[in-house]
Amino acid sequence: MPEAVTMLLFIAGLLICIGSGLSIFYALIFGLGVFFVYGLIQRHSFRAMLKMSVKGVGTVKNILLVFVMIGALTAVWRAAGTIPYIIYYSTKLISPHIFVLATFLLCSLISVLTGTSFGTSATMGVICMTMGRAMGINPLYIGGAALSGSFFGDRCSPMSTSALLVRELTHTDIYRNIRLMVATSALPFALACAVFLALGFLSGTGGIPRSAVGLFAENFSLVWETVLPAAIILVLSAFRVDVRITISLSVVCGGVICMTEQGMRLPLLLRTLALGFRPQDAELSAMLSGGGLVSMLSPAAIVFLSSTYSGIFEGTGLLSGLKKYIGAIGRKLNPYGAYIITSAFTAMLSCNQTLAIMLTDQLCGELAGSDTRRAICLENTAVIISPLIPWCIAGTVSLAAVGAPMSSIPFAGYLFFVPLWNWLLDFRKRKVSINIG
Question: Which of 57, 254, 325, 404 is least surrounded by CB atoms within 10 angstroms?
């Protein structure tokens, strides 16, 4: 009974914040207080509750550091001309009929390079939406393709904080996880490409606004050296260099290019790393502004606060009753089915991807059978189901950054195909094993 009352209070706080338009951060603060009081009522000491909270934060301490580094990375890639270079030459190859597909592929590329769905949405997503609207393409299609592409890399990039979190939780090798993620999403990716290509042929056939892309050539020195920061990410990731070292070297390389190729002075570079890139040209600023350490403060604060929940839930056993029901679901359906249902529930409850991943792992971890399978189950469910929940910040922030309506979510085909395909595979394997047995 106390557990049910505690969860209902938290859910009420979430609903009030969502209904009134308040930041989800306030609901998380309220929830921390509610769960803390629950622990005290269950005769855990105040000191013990603090230890539980700190234990939860300890799980994501490396993630928080990477968050800050990604803020600097997304700023310097803008300022150095890395992203403008990729966009400028990519758009020369795009026909209006394949623009929706190109949006998905370009956002996928940037999200793999940066590992951040928010950064991808705020850069490539914004530009694709701007161009798509000018071409008369339905913004629902562009929004769905951009959301799918943004979370393609969020799921399987070595730079991704969610992939790093899964590694921390499951004690697995991130590069082995990535290979398995590629294998388990190959068909969903191909199917998503086919759907986005079909949507493109249903859309308008206007021309690409070259004037918008031309701004990049006017304001940046688009020499080949500007792609070196992206190349560093790709090469060092292939050699499994530590993510923090990889990002640091990319930021340093980007900073050198900012000063040598783009004519940026050191004080302005440091300001850009901290506060983000803000070009003076108003039209260029609308497409390319963003990044910087400050851009990651809000999501980092939400991750920090929500991470305390996992330690409290584990230490107080608040979710132990729910875990029994999930185990029954896993036996009746299959592990993937249980992961899908649980991750949808935890994303609805927590309103953020990080806590959804951590809670899903706590509730379903025993169903997977091995740490590697546990990691892949999390990547194929909690990581990409979170942005499909309309009030979860994973999707709302990304779509808001792109300038797409929330009704774009049903068109984010890739995010639906991955969990469904893997659930069908798991169901088929289970059926075959039962028949053999």
Answer: 325
Asked if residue 317 is part of any domain, the answer here is no
Higher pLDDT, 322 or 316: 316
Residue 231: inside a domain, yes or no? Answer: yes
Whether the per-residue pLDDT at 228 is higher than 80: the answer is yes
Answer with the residue of higher pLDDT: 433 or 150: 150
Please give the residue range of the domain that contains residue 286. Answer: 61-296
Task: Using alpha carbons only, give the angle 106, 110, 116 rounded to the nearest 5 degrees.
Answer: 135
| Cα separation, 319 vs 323, whole angstroms | 6
Going 396 to 118 to 218 to 214, the CA torsion angle's sign is: negative
Residue type present at position 404: A
Number of structural domains in the chain: 1
Alpha helix (H) residue ranges in 243-296: 243-260, 266-275, 282-288
In a domain, residue 382? The reply is no
Identify the pLDDT of residue 437: 46
Token pair belonging to 310: 């996992």
Question: Does residue 360 contact residue 162 with C-beta atoms inside 8 Å?
Answer: no
Tokens for 89? 């030459």
For residue 295, give both structure tokens: 């851009």
